[in-house]
TrEMBL record:
PANTHER family membership: OS02G0190600 PROTEIN (PTHR39757:SF5), PTHR39757
Organism lineage string: Bacteria, Bacillati, Actinomycetota, Actinomycetes, Pseudonocardiales
Protein name: Lycopene beta-cyclase
Pfam families the UniProt entry points to: Lycopene_cycl
InterPro entries: FAD/NAD-bd_sf (IPR036188)
SUPFAM superfamilies, A to Z: FAD/NAD(P)-binding domain
Organism: Kutzneria buriramensis
Amino acid sequence: MVDVLVVGAGPAGSALAAACSDLGLRTMLLDRAPERPWRATYGSWARELPPLPADAIAARATNVRAHALTEHKLDGEYLVLHNENLRRHLSRPDIGIVTGRAEAITPTEVRLVDGRTLRAGVVVDATGPPRGRHAEQTAVGVALPADVLAPGEAVFMDWRQAGDPPTFCYALPLDGERVLVEETSLAHLPGLSLGLLRERLHRRLTVHGWPLDRPEHELVRFPLDPPLPRGGLVTFGARAGMIHPATGFGVATALTLAPRVARAIAETPAVIPRTIWPMSARMTHVLRRRGLAALLHMPPARIPEFFEHFFRLPAENQRDYLSGRENFTGTAAAMLALFRSASPRLRSAIAFAATTR
């Protein structure tokens, strides 16, 4: 029996397994295909990430722009992670790797579909977001030549050509030769179809005169509002609801939080749930879920106007809402500042949307 068994070898599970191993805990990592590549593109604000080796960063953008009704320059550096090198950074020779599929997971035991049973002092479920009917973020992306963006440039959101239901363009460098351009539905219930996003993406590429003869680089679909964990089983990453309801970001949170959770596992297992979800984080998450509800119920024509007011907020307000997982005061201040700055018609739309279930 090992001290820790982490189920799921994605970035969150790998980060936690590495942190546990670094503390001397006997650690095992279980996954159906532990060597499979991480296909998703993980972008993050530099301020959200823990220190990482230079080769774990695939690209950097220092000129980050957003388009709503007008153009805005955003504060901060935006990074794209190098999946293969990040995975290598999180690997440890003393982590036991097991290939298998979990059929049942309990706080101290995992039963596999092939009949094997694995036991540990603490089992952590890091198998990704739970299934169910949730608001989803969806996207379809292609890799284009690097010259479609200026060096060091990224487009965080472009709501021009938003359409109904509204979608935006997300564009960022993948490396020195390629740029990822994604047509993205920020939030919809249920998630928008990938077919519709393909049509929107091709239309956008045509408008910009960008090449159309590119195979799809990435398909994205994940829930934004999964329930927070309950019960005795420890969960981590997306499985624990550690996804920002307004942006879909979560990997940086997992990388930052993994050492703290590992320390709790090693020293005081009873505080693991509070380490992952302290009261300040829960309160902040509730506020951001109300912001998600407002977006889900807002008239599509108001979405670009909503983000115009958001991107006009002081940089501190924007940072507090987009980052700062435990910053309840800052998140509330950002939401209040946006509401106060909005036109009476937009205020009415926000108030109605935020209180509609």
